[in-house]
Design goal:
globular; single chain; mainly beta; 25 strands; five-stranded antiparallel beta sheet; four-stranded antiparallel beta sheet
Length: about 350
């Protein structure tokens, strides 16, 4: 059949990333078209699924679509180096940042695409060697600099001289996937040492952490602009009374759709218009106190909240205001735990290289 090229392209835009990866083998013209950066960017905003990435006791990685939780998890054919320990550190446009380690303590940072199984192992940044006599804590973030078309890894590291006093410096290092190099950034003017080492949350071109102001120890949401590599603050919602979010062990930043969220105790606050304090809205999670929330992970899918508790996922219907069902994700894979979420895409972690 003589089908016009624009109709074929329109159909391809609506197919899952996994299928498009296979269709690159159809012909040289399809291979070229499906590898074009503009096609990949446009395709990211179509019908791709948002799976959870899980790990088993034997350190194998699995994918589980959020909208098909009843299905059996699918094992990812990944060849990541040092796969014995896998720590999820964030995701952006289908790429996942992870810390991987083997049982002899060899470790590295890796950016990989679970859909295409391509990955890059990051070189050492060098900051770990500054002083071996002091304990070093590091917080990670991963996101996309839309202004310069860069994917960047950001680390905030600090030395513990005394846990009773805040560290003197918050060292910032930035890695660019385009240049495959690390560089020193401007030190963070905030104290991240009580942020419980949670990874940064990427929304609207910014990475976000909860930290303290150095001057008065007031907790704030800190935003790091990936384009100009500067820090700023995002206004908190108007919480009842004088709530110290830093003292709440359950408090963490999350992403709800494309909105920044604050998950604390039995509610989620959503910033409907980025940077505007008045735009925060509240979702009260009824019945949450009856669930043993061990891992405190939360995801969203189609106006539903997915809350992880050990090997169970509790699904909360926001519109109905109640939990609608529970899924046992480890029913067929022993010891399966949720590590994080990502979106299926064709984006390559190797800049300038097609998958």
């Amino acid at each position: 059949m003589d089908i016009p090229p624009e109709i074929i392209t329109n159909i391809l835009y609506r197919l899952l990333a996994k299928s498009l990866g296979r269709f690159r083998c159809v012909s040289k013209s399809w291979q070229a078209q499906l590898s074009e950066p503009q096609f990949i960017k446009y395709h990211q905003n179509t019908v791709n699924r948002n799976p959870l990435i899980c790990a088993s006791f034997c350190s194998s990685l699995y994918s589980l679509p959020c909208n098909q939780l009843e299905e059996n998890p699918k094992k990812l054919s990944s060849e990541l180096p040092r796969p014995d320990i896998f720590v999820f550190l964030g995701s952006c446009n289908g790429l996942v940042l992870s810390f991987v380690e083997d049982f002899v303590n060899a470790h590295s940072l890796v950016v990989f695409n679970p859909t295409t199984t391509k990955f890059v192992e990051l070189p050492e940044s060098g900051y770990e060697m500054v002083n071996k006599l002091l304990e070093i804590d590091t917080m990670y973030g991963f996101g996309y600099d839309v202004l310069n078309d860069y994917y960047k890894v950001v680390t905030i590291s600090y030395f513990h001289y005394n846990y009773m006093h805040p560290p003197d410096n918050m060292f910032v290092h930035i890695y660019s996937l385009r240049n495959n190099t690390w560089k020193c950034g401007i030190d963070s003017p905030y104290d991240h040492s009580h942020g419980r080492s949670l990874h940064g949350v990427f929304v609207d071109g910014f990475l976000h952490w909860i930290a303290n102001k150095v001057s008065n120890r007031v907790p704030v949401i800190v935003a790091f602009n990936l384009a100009d590599e500067t820090f700023s603050e995002v206004p908190l919602p108007n919480l009842d009374g004088h709530v110290d979010i830093m003292s709440k062990s359950s408090c963490k930043l999350v992403v709800y759709g494309e909105e920044l969220g604050l998950f604390m105790e039995d509610r989620v606050w959503l910033m409907n218009e980025y940077g505007v304090r008045e735009s925060w809205s509240e979702i009260l999670i009824h019945g949450l106190h009856e669930i043993p929330m061990i891992e405190r992970k939360i995801f969203c899918e189609d106006r539903k909240l997915l809350l992880v508790s050990s090997g169970l996922i509790w699904i909360y219907d926001v519109e109905e205001g109640s939990f609608c069902r529970t899924i046992n994700i480890s029913r067929n894979v022993t010891g399966l735990t949720v590590k994080g979420g990502y979106v299926e895409s064709l984006v390559s972690p190797k800049f300038g290289e097609t998958n």
